[in-house]
What does this fold into?
Amino acid sequence: MWKFFILSLCALTTLSCGIKVGGGSLRDPVPNGTLVASGEFQGQNGKTVSGSALVYQTGQVSYVLRLSGVSFPAESGQQIFAVVGGSTLSAIELRGNTGDQNYDITLSGFTSPDWQLVRIHSTVYATDYAQATLISR
It folds into this structure.
């Protein structure tokens, strides 16, 4: 009885604190659409990272930001920031620190978006872990 109670309490605490449960590398499929920008991640502030950021246009105002072959230091609270036309889009929570990940983005008000960069930011340490400067395709 106590063992069940303690295990349940641990699971509830872990989920409510925002600590990610599980692991493994994400393997989202390559999105359908036209590749419009891409760039390789470079480590920031002494962090070792790898992988690339790719942006696919999937509709008139619909895009998919794909993180491909990425490997970042594991930590809760990492976020993705994309800069388009000099504006930083709302933060997106990073789903994992390795693998291939797709994030849907809708851009209204941009006729020909100029995708400039993608940053991986740590909310815990208030610092950037990685940055990819994007080149239009």
